[in-house]
Structure formats: C-alpha cells, structure tokens
Amino acid sequence: MRITPAQKQKHAVNNSEFRLAVGAMLLPTFHLAALLLLFVSAGRCADAAAGGDGGRFVYNGFRAANLTLDGAATVTPNGLLMLTNGTIQMKGQAFHPSPLPFRDPKAPNATAARSFSTTFVFAIFGQYTDLSSHGLAFFVAADRAVLSTALPGQFLGLLNNTNDGNRSAHVFAVEFDTLFNADFHDLNSNHVGVDVDSLESRVAADAGYYDDATGLFRNLSLISRKAMQVWVDYDGAATQVTVTMAPIGLARPKKPLLQTTVDLSDVVQDAAYVGFTSATGVLFSRHFVLGWSFGLDGPAPALNISVLPALPPAGPKPRSKVLVIVLPIASATLVFAVGIAIYALVRRRIKYAELREDWEIAFGPHRFSYKDLFHATKGFSDKQLLGAGGFGSVYKGVLRKSNTETEVAVKKVSHESKQGMKEFITEVASMGRLRHRNLVQLIGYCRRKGELLLVYDYMPNGSLDKYLYDRSKGGLDWPQRFRIIRGVASGLLYLHEDWEQVVIHRDVKASNVLLDAEMNGRLGDFGLARLYDHGADAHTTHVVGTMGYLAPELGHTGKATPATDVFAFGAFLLEVTCGRRPIEQDEHGNRTVLVDWVTGRWRRGLIIDAADTMTPDGFNPDEVSLVLKLGLLCSHPLPNARPTIRQVMQYLDGDMVLPDLSLEHFGFTVMEQMYSREFDKNMTMPCVSSTSMGTVSDISGGR
C-alpha cells in the first residue's frame, strides 16, 4: 500500500510525540520542569507568529498566517504572500483580519494616534528588469469599504477616482511606485512616497538607501526581482513618519530615506486596518511579500531573515519585448479603451470646463481657453500669486505659442450674477483695443463657472502703492513720482477724450497703477470701467470704487463721468505726493481725510510741508506745490469746479498756469462730513475703514 505524504507526516509526528513522552518519563524531575517551560515558551512564539495579541505580530512567511485576502492576493505553497499573480488590470489586498486600536483611551491625549512600527520584506517581478506597471503600498485604513471600492492601475488598489484626494478616505500609505521605464524619462517613477488620502505623495524620494560607511546614496530598482526590506515608523508624539529601506540582509541604515511630518490623528479613527495592496495596469507584474511584523507603541519584532520563504527563480529575460508588450496592451485596449477614454474625456472636460454662450462668438479673438490660462499659471499655483484682496486674485502666467513666451497677469473675479454679463464682455472686448503707453493692456478674458478671468500684460515692478507704503522696497524719488503722475494723467486723457469712445475707469488709485520695467506708471485694472459714446450722457449705475477716491455726487446721481475720474485722480495726486492714503484711521478710531489735511496746511501757507519727507534726494518745491494744489482743485466737491483731464495735462506740462486758489473756493469741509457717516442709501457700498481701504464692485450687475 502507498503511503501518502500526509500519512508520512502524521506518522512522523506520532513517533516524535511517543519518543518525547518516553524520554520525559526517564528524565529527572527538574529536567521535566525545564522541558515544560520550553513547551510553554514555544507555544507563545507560535501564537505571536500566527497573529499576535492585536497590537503586535510577526509573520516569517505566511503559510499559516491569519490574514484577510482580497482580489488576486493569495499565499503560495511555500509561504509567499503574492498580492498580484501576473494578470493585467488587477488589484490584490492583504490585511490583518481585525482592526487595531490606534487610539489609547487611557493616554493623556486620547485623540492622538498611537505610535507604531512595521518592517516587511517585498519583491516585485515585472515582465522586464527595466519596465514595469504599477507598484505596491503598505497602508493604514480606517474603513474596509474604501479598500473594497479601490481600483487597479494608477490607483494601486488603494483608492478610486472619486475618493482620491478626499480627506474622508482616511487612508495613510507608503507607496512603492514602479511605473518605470529606463529608456523613456517621462515614465520614470521608481520612487517611494508618503500618501495621505491621496495618491499624490506629500513627500517622495528615489528608491534607495544611504550607505552607513560612505554616506553615499545607493539607488535600488524596485522591479529588480530582488528582495528588499523596509522599515516604517510613526512617532505619535512628534507626528513624524520615517521610512528606511535596504537590500535584504543589510542592516537597517542609520540615515532614513524619508522623514516627514504627518498627523495620523486626522486619518485613523479609534481602530484601523493595516496591510498591503498592489495593482497592475496594461503590463503585468507579480508583487510578493516575504515577511511582515508590526508593533504598536514600540518597535516591531525583528524578522528572521534566514527562515523567510524563497522567491521563485527570476528566470531569463524574454527575448522580445514587443511581442509580450503589444499583445497585453492590445487586449487591454479592446476591453478598457472605451471606458478609459470616456473617463479621461469627462475628467478633462470638468478640469478645463468653461462657460460659453452663443453671443460670445463675436469676441473669439479676445477669448482665452481656460486650459491655456491654467497651464500658464501652473494651475493657479500659490507660487504664481501676485496679489489678492476683495477685488479677486491676480496670478503671474506665461503663455506659450509658436515658440514664443508672453508674460501675463491673470485676474480671477467673481461673476455670480448673469445680469449685465453680455454688456460687460462687450466692453471687455472693446477695451482690448485700447492702445496707450500708460495703460496696462487688457488682452482678453475667459469665463469659468462662477469666475471671470481677465488677462493683462504683466508689469514686472508691481503696483505703485507698494513703493509708497512698503519702505523695504525703497522710496521713489520726486522725478519718478512726477513722471508716474504725468503718465497716469496722459492715460486718462486718452480714455476720456482721445479714444473712439469715452472710457470711465472708475477705480483710479495707487494700487491700480502698475510699474513697467522702466518704472513708468501704467493705469491698469479695467474690471470696473465702462464706456459710452462721445456726446452721450452717462447712465446711472451701481456705485463702485474705493473709499477715499469716490466723488460726492456719485451718492446722489449714481453716474460715473470723466469728472468722477478726475476726483479720484485728485486723491491719487495727493497720495503719491504725500505718501499717505486718502483716508487714514489711528488706533483710537479717529479718521483723517487727506484732502482736508492738505487743505489745512495750504490755509496756513505750509502746503510744501505736506509732501512725503521720505522722498530720496529731496524734491522740486515748485513742482510739489503745483501737484498738491492741482490735487486740491481736482478734489473739489462740485464736479463743475474741477478741471478736465486735458486741463490737468496742460497744468502739469506748464502750458497753462494753475489759477490762484482762494479761501472762498477751497473753504470746504464737505469731504470730512461725507466720510464721517455712511453714504446715501442709494449707494451700494458700506463704510470701509481706512486701514482696509476696501474696494466695492459689482462687475456683473447694473453695468
């Protein structure tokens, strides 16, 4: 009769037990006690290897391991945990069957995640040693439901297209990304990364380790089909993650590969699952884990490297990459091409979605695609942000077309209301035809969801107000200030009288005057401007602009006219010359109106004393006196008493003599009265303190 291997094993065990029992009866009593202790100790070790006490375990191979397996994951006869088996577009998951207590209710900070340590040995067998699909990851996940809905491919069997990047995922992972091709640099991704609720790593590094002897970095190929060991430690007190790796058999390097701050208290709940996940794409790979240990509140138990299961033979490298690659790619394309294409198309359209209406066809040359602006500003990155406030945010961008690069400034403002949008876009397109050396060129626009994006020429030296109030940038000398004043006046003259239509800027102020490379002043930000034909009457509109620059009649008529721009220009003249804001408020809440302050000095014959004392190299008293008096004249509360912008230019150029100012003409305190209370109820703006100098605007309605 043939004896099966199982019967042989049982027979051997029975014989061993019999011999052990007989031997025990022959041993002295103290030998028998020692033997019993040895059995108890061995039993405890076996229990630890089988899963531990819930917070500490070690698996030196997985032949009898109590793990939950999902997807393609399986345990080979010799004890290897094989997460993927060489099938394309497949995921495999293996994790400790029960969640571990990641929070200690008895700890002083019961909401903090507990420290943990884990070490494991893995190997990845791709089709080639220089080409692979996707990798594997060690994870800590609060909810198994997230793992069950995870996708293969680039999602690593960890997340999906819906929860990738969503904080509700509650997943922490250390990924080993192997989408790698040594011949095509745009595919290189042989790295280790730390992920939190996203497959975009918070921090990443090339796979490898630091040699203790030399301190040099040694690269490791994750798809070399060779085993390598990883150590992951989380310090709950310091909220710090450390990742170290090395070839198997090498002692743990002293210098870690990665170290970063991650507070897992925001990720894990009271309990969480720990384990591994991997995935394949259009190329197949096999992902193996040889051994794994884990410990809460202390170091993970050491792995016994000598008893880990052996990896399968690496085998010869296939002779034809093309045949092996093309066939799975072709088959995968037939199965998944339609789904992937639709998904990619929908995602792309959502990412670059714009708001377009039929009436905008006529403005095609002035319309930018959101995709171009997105790439020009590097995704509207914070690093590209030039400024932000109540008016919106402005980003620096570089538009690339036909091997040329154009620097632009892209301003994002809200347009929640559709009312008046067609008229507004019409005006934007019209103002795109404005051409003057002292105007910032408005190039075009784009509409997206609740945003309007305006595209301007980029001015490298930023806005004038920074040089007036931020002394770290260095002060402006008087010739520079006078040239800027004259330049802005010239630009306003073009808008009011020399262009084909009358353009009312409606927000003339220092922060809207930008400086080009030669420090020439250019009036910008036409987001509030409006136009009408020469000889026509201005229409009533919502009051928009900035406190301190608004003409008094706006509160009663609601009509923006060239005279209201001249009033704002008067405040601008005083601001640039005095280096003070039109309205200032001290720590006691007392407000000072600049025009009244300058008027007081003029009455006492000390108008020159109002000039900015921080002006380098002094100033020209005659020019300063002229500009200050002209600022008062432009700031007159009665619009008919103000000069036109052409007369302003003639005064600045010396072609006309500024009329003498009289106490009867300038004995007014209406400005002080106007800014000491709220505007008329017909005005749509709130009172704004001089410290914030808020801008009030409604770009979409009542234009």
UniProtKB/TrEMBL annotation:
Residues 380-658 form the Protein kinase domain. Its EC number is 2.7.11.1. GO terms for molecular function: ATP binding; carbohydrate binding; protein serine/threonine kinase activity. It catalyses: L-seryl-[protein] + ATP = O-phospho-L-seryl-[protein] + ADP + H(+); L-threonyl-[protein] + ATP = O-phospho-L-threonyl-[protein] + ADP + H(+). GO terms for biological process: negative regulation of response to salt stress. Coiled coil: none annotated. Keywords: ATP-binding, Cell membrane, Glycoprotein, Kinase, Lectin, Membrane, Nucleotide-binding, Receptor, Serine/threonine-protein kinase, Signal, Transferase, Transmembrane, Transmembrane helix. Its main location: membrane. GO terms for cellular component: plasma membrane. The chain crosses the membrane at residues 20-40, 322-346. It is found in: Cell membrane. It is a single-pass type I membrane protein. It comes from the Eukaryota. ATP binds at K412. PANTHER family: PTHR27007. In the C-terminal section; belongs to the protein kinase superfamily. Ser/Thr protein kinase family. In the N-terminal section; belongs to the leguminous lectin family. This is non-specific serine/threonine protein kinase. It comes from Panicum hallii.
